[in-house]
Write a structure and sequence with these properties.
- It is a single chain.
- The chain is elongated and about 55 Å long.
- The model has no long low-confidence stretch (mean pLDDT 80).
- It starts with a helix and ends with a helix.
- The chain has 3 helices and no strands.
- With 60 residues, the protein is mainly α.
- 80% of the residues lie in helices and 0% in strands.
Amino acid sequence: MTAARVHRDEATHGRDGNGLKTAARIGLWLVACGALAAVALAYLNPQLMVELANRAWACL
């Protein structure tokens, strides 16, 4: 393995070679997709987002 290849692998996966665990990656994807879905829903139905925000605020 060349030095450049070792450096590239360490930069992306760390020295132990594990990188992010699969569960962490799936969790990050789910959070990102959830955020995109919330933005899309707010765009399509802004009154629903206002209603949900008001209900959440009332619970505090």
